[in-house]
Specification:
21% strand; elongated; 156 residues; three-stranded antiparallel sheet; 5 strands; alpha+beta
């Protein structure tokens, strides 16, 4: 039972799919570990709020976060494919203290409302050597994955 806006009790059934989506978004936004869903106090709080709640494991939470990532990636792919103009890329490379290399590939574009946007397309391991040829091949491979090869002006 829940109290509604008129201070009357009403029954409310929990929608597990909505609940799991909200938990996945919480994990992403607050950079929580997947084990968050297994914390004793978190489960106690959920049970207090709704006795019908079904608990799930960290593996299910990880799968939900990955599913959310895939959905958002597909949305961005469609948005970029439908742009009337071209896109621009920037990349950043660095090495951690452990000498592991990383690359971040960001796209910049103007949408249909003339608003400048930027989105991270790829954040991945990129081991040395960071030569121009290795970088070019990595970027071309990522652009192929994103189906963006035709969104660039040809080099002159």
């Amino acid at each position: 039972m829940m109290v509604n806006a008129e201070a009357k009790l009403q029954a409310r059934k929990i929608d597990q799919s909505v609940f799991r989506e909200l938990v996945a978004k919480t994990i992403i936004q607050h950079d929580l570990p997947f084990s968050y869903v297994e914390y004793e106090r978190v489960r106690e709080t959920w049970k207090y709020l709704n006795a019908d709640v079904k608990f799930f494991s960290r593996n299910t939470a990880a799968a939900d976060v990955y599913k959310f990532y895939e959905i958002e990636t597909d949305k961005l792919k469609r948005e970029l494919a439908q742009l009337p103009g071209r896109i621009s890329l920037t990349t950043d490379l660095w090495s951690a203290l452990t000498h592991e290399g990383y690359m971040c590939l960001t796209t910049h574009y103007i949408d249909r409302n003339w608003k400048l946007n930027n989105k991270i397309l790829v954040f991945c391991a990129f081991p040395p050597p960071h030569t121009g040829m290795n970088l070019a091949m990595e970027i071309l491979g990522k652009l192929k994955d994103w189906e963006l090869r035709r969104k660039f002006s040809p080099l002159r």
